[in-house]
Each structure stands twice: as structure tokens, then as C-alpha cells.
Amino acid sequence: MTRKKMLRVAAGFSAAVLLTGVPVPLAGVWENSLPSALAAEQRADGLTQEQAIQQVSKLLNIPADYKLDRTSYHKKNQKLPFDHPLWSLTWVKGREGFLSVNVDAVTGQLVYYSHHDEKWESDSLSAVSEEQALRAAERFLERVLPKAEREKLSKPNEYPGLPNFTGDPWRTRVFSYTRMEDDTPFLGNGVLVIVDRTGEVIMFIRNWYQGELPDAKAVIQPDEAERLLAEKAAPSLVYSLESELTGRYQEDSNRYRLVYRYVQTDPQFVDATTGKLLNALGEPAEEVGIKPLGTTVNSRAADKLIGKEEAQKIAEELVKRLPGSYRSDGSRGGGARSGADGVESRYWRFEFTPLHVQGKNAEPIVISISDRGELVEYRIGEGLFPAERGRKIEKAVSWTAAQESAVKLVKTLLSERLGDIYLIDRKPSRTIEEEVREQGQYYVFRFGLMKNGIPIEDRNFRVIVNPDTGEAIELDVYEFGPVSAEATAAKIDQKAAAKTEREQKKLMLAYHLPDGESKPLLVYSYVGDEGVVDAVTGEWLSFADLRKKEIPQDIDNHPEQAALQFAIREGLLTVTDGKVEPDKAATRGDMVQMMARMVNRIEFHRQISVRDDDEARQPYRFADVDEKHPLYGVIQKVIQYGLIPKEGTRFEPDRPVTRGEAAEMAARLLGYGELLEKPGLFASPYRDVEKRLVPAVALAHAYGLLPSGSPDAFQPDKTLTRAEAAKLMKALLEVRKPK
After folding, report:
1. Which residues of 149-162 are buried (b: 16+ CB within 10 A; e: fewer)?
2. Could you identify which of 175, 332, 588, 604 might form a hypothetical disulfide with 156, taking C-beta atoms 3.0 to 4.6 angstroms apart as the criterion?
3. Would you tell me how many other CB atoms lie within 10 Å of the CB of residue 146?
4. Alpha-carbon dihedral angle through residues 158, 164, 165, 167, given to the nearest 10 degrees
5. How far apart are CA 482 and CA 461, in angstroms?
6. Of 587, 585, 645, 551, nearest in space to 248 by CA
7. How would you write 559-612 as a 3-class SS string?
8. What are the residue ranges of helices labelled H in 32-185?
9. If we measure between CA atoms, which residue out of 421, 471, 414 comes closest to residue 442?
10. Is residue 408 within a helix (H) or strand (E), and if so which, with residue range?
């Protein structure tokens, strides 16, 4: 994940953390945008907008070339721990930088800060040390955090940090400080500071519970808690996204590993005052188990594509499953999106008018079908339903009735794959139904996807239910392509996995604020190295150790160090066990991976496009790269974009790429694919280039992309090193950057 993406993800994450005081938003209600900005003169239970701006200016150095761009005021929510309103302020520097701040509208305390500037993205050959970064973090805390709070902080990274922020170990230094009450840590409470490799603080998060804490006197003794956890603690077997473990968000974007890890509903804490075994929600732990909604599984070939006419037939068959009768009104257009496997897919929207509904205001039904023949979306009316905050519902349907409606819709529309789907059956918090009634929020229920009966962690979709009528009004199925995971079954059981994890940690008394609840608990918990257990090998996979392996150890002082740093930052080159192997020959597989990621950038995406016809989108099959090959999706993507031609029966992904092949791919990425078929338009600047390659080599020469060691010889059959491939990618981006 690049720094800019990390900061933008964090900005979205901060709304949940900062407005609720818990690390995730409440489940079961429609999550929507926050209220719009109020007028500058309106008071916010304390600070006006102008006073908030002045306070931020005292705490932070806002660069002179940054201009205030947006302000918004977020009302307090008395049902949740964060009981103060917030001012959110954003400064921008054209398209080059942004600085976002959340400040407590009552106390004036800084709650959230993120800063991105393009100038920091330069491929600097030096970086601050860990010690220098730590000093920068602590100077920042001295400026923005009250002394009383600083004195309650643990040593940096002494305890597990705030969730979802592991950072890029090569480009950033992450310092997590846990709040301590006497000698008892408050897990998940405290502050987080991220420092860039240049020594700039680029992110700060303060997550500080406002209410009273329970008495830190445990009734249950540690040995009893240890016995209970040894007997009953049970992590779940799940497919976990490899990139969340390794931090390689580009390279491992669609790869999964079978692991044991604790999820919200798993027994993992002992209440220190009652002795009850608890899950992360603070509920008495039960052996719930995950049950699919049926037995049928998706058997459709992932690479079999259909056209618009066939998609319409599927939509018309689906609408027949719904109660009542409908008239088909044809297509309402469509769109395209790229899945995690890199392959772009199309979808078409089809509208149906209900004939069984009386009156002129009958809302149409929209059904969207992908070119894989799968349901993408179902909705009534225009969709994108607002939260309708402030509109009180006199008599809302119950959470249970709404859930039944959601399940019924899923069973109706996705009956062919119910064996792959389960309800994420989280019990509602005591505030959900109240908020639905008081604020008019919609119910949201989430369903997870499975592989071989095992949950896939990040594969889920939602169903929205109208609280007035109890009708399920929207279903969004987010498909990300096939799951790439080893077919090996788990070779260790839950007990062995739990034992392995306990060996990495220490039993401690700690405060814990359950997700979605408003009061912390005093619990016994195993605290220490964060990670998961590999379900096949039984190995402990430490997140920290995995991320250290992503720090390149073999590029310092390399002649192409700057290009290599660029390629690593952009996810073009993979770091494996601390090695990039810059002087190793780049393979054809390496090159198409780089091209597939470069085409995602706007500089290239707008130059080339996928042909919008059924024939062009059909997969091109190579005998040596089938659907199970890790590069299958990437190769299909570059074919779709015309970066490699549809020719030959073998791709040879492990063969070193030649300079001639690299020149062809580079010319296609720049949008010159059609000219490569017209060698008569070009004169070769080199004597050793065959006629077929003349256009590509001439273009590469004109742009200075692949310099040759000889003035009259291009050496088209010579192979490229990984460092030279990185240099080529960097040069291509320079060609397309605005001058």
C-alpha cells in the first residue's frame, strides 16, 4: 500500500474510531456520510469554526502554501464513548498535497492528523534511523498531547497497537503508545504516530476513552484465567488475505493463506470480575460455528464470459423468482471494474417495472449481471439510500424480522451458491434498534463467502432493509474474482493453534473496550506479538517479522537504487525475505506484473482502453498458464489492454524477457499498439533490429527508454535485469507525467 493510499484509507477509518471511540463502526445499521458543514458563526458546544482553525494553527505548522479547502462539524453522540463534537478541517496544496485534521470542538485537543505531500514521494537514497524517527514522534507528542496524557503512555510499541495500522516497514516508522492506568494497559486505547522515512510525521491518531474505568481489582486469579483459556480459547480457521499478513498490498492482492486467528465471536478473554469466558464483543463466548445458507456451490467457470444478451436472459430469469409480476424495460447501461486478480469485468443493468403494484409511484427493480454471468446488484428504485438522520420512525420492524427479510432475499437470488454463503450473524448491540427508530437509519446485514466450507475473511456483501416496511431493498455482491489459495487442508487443529499462539504471548490483566459497546471491561488476555498460526505448517506467523522481510537489504548503493526504490514503492517489484535480487534476470512474468500495475495509474489508463466487444474480452488461453496459475489474472489483464498480443500457444512466464520484448510492451503501454503493425512508417536507428521490431525500438529510442551500450546496436535479444526493468518503468512514468 502506497503512503497516499494508506493516508486516505486512514482518513476513512478515523471517522469510525474518532466518532465512536471504538475501532469499527456499529454493524447492523446503514453506514453513511457524516453531517455537512455548519456555518462558521455557529457554535459547536465550545469552539466556533474560526476558533477551531486558530487552535489547529497553534498545535501544528500548517505550510504557507496550503489553503483551507473544507470544514465540517460532527455532532456528538451521547450513546457512545466519544461524547464531544468534532471539527474536521482539510488544507490542500493543489493536487500535490493534503493535510487533514480532526479537533475536539469542546477541549480543542487534536484527535486525528494526516499529511501527504508529493515531494516526499521522491526516491531519496537516505532515510532517518529508527532513533531519529522516534525523536520526531516524541517531539510531535510534546506539542499536541497534554502532559497528563503523555505521562500515561506506555513505551512505544510495548503493546499491540491500534488496529489496521502496521505501516510500510521500509517507508514508514510506526510508533504505538498504549494508555496505562497505573500498571494496567488499556488495549486499543492511546495514540499512534507514523513517521515518514524523511522524518516527517504523516499521521497521528488519538483514541482515548472518555468515561470511567472499572476498578482494577481482579476477583479471578491468573492461574484460573489461564486454565479457562487453555481449555476453551479457540481461534477460527479462515482464509486470510496474504497481503494483510505480509503488507505486500500489490503483490499479494488476491492470494490467501489458510490460518488460525481469533475473530470477533471467538472465546479469547476472561472477565476478571466474573470469571466468564468472553469474545471480542464482550459477550459470553459460545461455540457458534459457521453454517452455510444451503448446500449448492458455485460451479460456473470463472473465465467463461458472456455478452449483454445472455446477461439480460439471466436477469429475466432472476426476476421470475420474486413475488409478483414484472415487465422488462431493457438495459439501463452498465459499467466495468477491476477485481483483485487484475482482470477487468463488465456488468449491465436491467430495469423491471412491477405490474402487481398499484399507483404511479411503483419503483422499478434494477438487476445488474456481470460478464461472468453472476448477480452484481439488486435494488429497488435509485438505491444509495440516505441515513435520514433525525427522521424518527414511530414503528420500525425488529432487528430479527429485518434479518429474516435479508436472508430470504439472498436465498431467492443466490440459490445456486448458498453453500458458499453464510450470515455474519452478529447479535445487535442494544443501541442499534434505538438508533433505527430515533434516526431513521436503515438496517444493514452482511453475508460472508466461503471456500471449501471455510470463511474467506474479506469476501462479504451486504443487504439493506427498510426499517419502515421490513423489505430488503438492496443487495450488493462485491465479486473480486476467484480466490487464489493452496488447496492443502489444515493439518493442525484449534487446540494446537491456540497453544502455539499462547507461547508467543503473556497472560495479562488489561482493560478492553468491546466492539460496539460503551463501557470497558477488566479482562485477562494473552498480550504480545501479533500474528496468526499457519494452519498447514503450524508455524507462528508474526506480523512484525513478516513485514521486516519486506525491507530490501540488497539495493543499498546499487547504481539503479532510485529506480529500485520507485519500483518497490509502487509494488512493481517483490521483496522476498529482504531481497529484491536487482541483478537477476527479469522474467516475462515479472514484466507483465509490472505492466498490469502501471496500467492502473491514470497516466496510462487514459491512454489505452479495453475494447468493448465480447470477442476482445474472451480469455486467451496459453497452454502453460491455466486458470490456477498465479499469473493467470495478470496475463489476462495485459491482454485485455493490448499490452501483449494474442498470439502463440505458450507464454513462458519464467523465461527471461528480452530488450526487444520489453520495447514492444513499453510502446503498447504508451498507447502505440496500432503503430507496431506498421513497420514501414519507421526507420531503425540500429543495425541489429529485425523489421518486425523496428517500430517498438524506434519509439523506445525516441523516448530514451532503453539506452544501448552501442551507438548502432540495440541488442534486442539481450535480457533485462530486474533493476533495468525498474528503470524502464520509472522512465515510462516520466514520459507521461505532465511537464
Report:
1. beebbeebeebbbb
2. 175
3. 10
4. 120
5. 15
6. 551
7. CCHHHHHHHHHCCCCCCECCECCCCCECEHHHHHHHHHHHCCCHHHHCCCCCCC
8. 49-59, 130-144, 147-150
9. 471
10. helix 399-413
Cα within 13 Å of Cα(558), Cβ side: 22
Residue 496 Cα to chain centre, angstroms: 30
* Cell digits of residue 501: 499462539
Residues 240-261: tens digit of each pLDDT: 988 778 766 666 667 789 999 9
3-state secondary structure of 724: helix
Beta-strand pair 172-181/184-196: antiparallel
DSSP element (H, E) containing 136: helix 130-144
Q: How does residue 102 score in pLDDT terms, banded at 50, 70 and 90? A: very high
Q: What type of residue sits at position 45?
A: D
Closest by alpha carbon to 366, among 401, 300, 322, 310?
322
Q: What angle do CA 622, 623, 627 make, to 5 degrees?
A: 70
CA angle 608, 610, 613 (to 5 degrees): 145
Cell numbers linked to 695: 517500430
3-state SS, residue 507:
strand
Distance CA 234, CA 222 (A): 19
Beta partners for 521? 512
With 80 as the cut, is the pLDDT of residue 534 above it?
A: yes
What is the length of the chain? 739
CB atoms within 10 A of CB 231: 12
The separation between CA 611 and the C-alpha centre of its own chain, rounded to angstroms, equals 28
With b meaning 16 or more CB within 10 Å and e meaning fewer, what string describes 34-72? eeebbeeeeebeebbbebbbebbeebbebeeebeeeebb
Helices 694-703 and 659-669: angle between axes, nearest 10 degrees? 70
CA distance 272 to 214: 11
For the cut 60, the answer to whether the pLDDT of residue 22 exceeds it is no
The DSSP secondary-structure symbol of 286 reads -
Which among 381, 374, 372 is positioned nearest to 352, based on CA atoms?
A: 381
State the pairing for strand pair 201-207/184-196: antiparallel
List CB contacts of 363: < 8 A, sequence separation 6 or more: 354, 380, 381
DSSP H or E segment with residue 46: none
Query: How far is the C-alpha of 352 from the C-alpha of 316, rounded, in Å?
Result: 9
Q: With the C-alpha atoms ordered 180, 181, 186, 190, is the resulting torsion angle positive or negative? A: negative
Query: Angle 432-439/399-413 helices, nearest 10 degrees?
Result: 90
- Contact present, 608 and 669 (Cβ < 8 Å): yes
Residue 600, amino acid: N
Question: Beta strand 110-117 with 172-181: parallel, antiparallel or unpaired?
Answer: unpaired
CA distance 20 to 84: 10
Going by their DSSP bridges, the two strands 484-485 and 255-261 should be labelled as parallel
C-beta of residue 633 within 8 angstroms of C-beta of residue 342: yes
- Tell the residue number behind the cell numbers 430469469, with chain if given: 317
Q: Residue 448 carries which DSSP code? A: E
CA distance 592 to 263: 36
Residues 641-672 pLDDT 10s? 889 988 999 999 999 999 999 999 999 999 99
Distance CA 450, CA 508 (A): 34
CB 494 within 8 A of CB 391: no
Note the pTM of the prediction, 2 decimals: 0.80
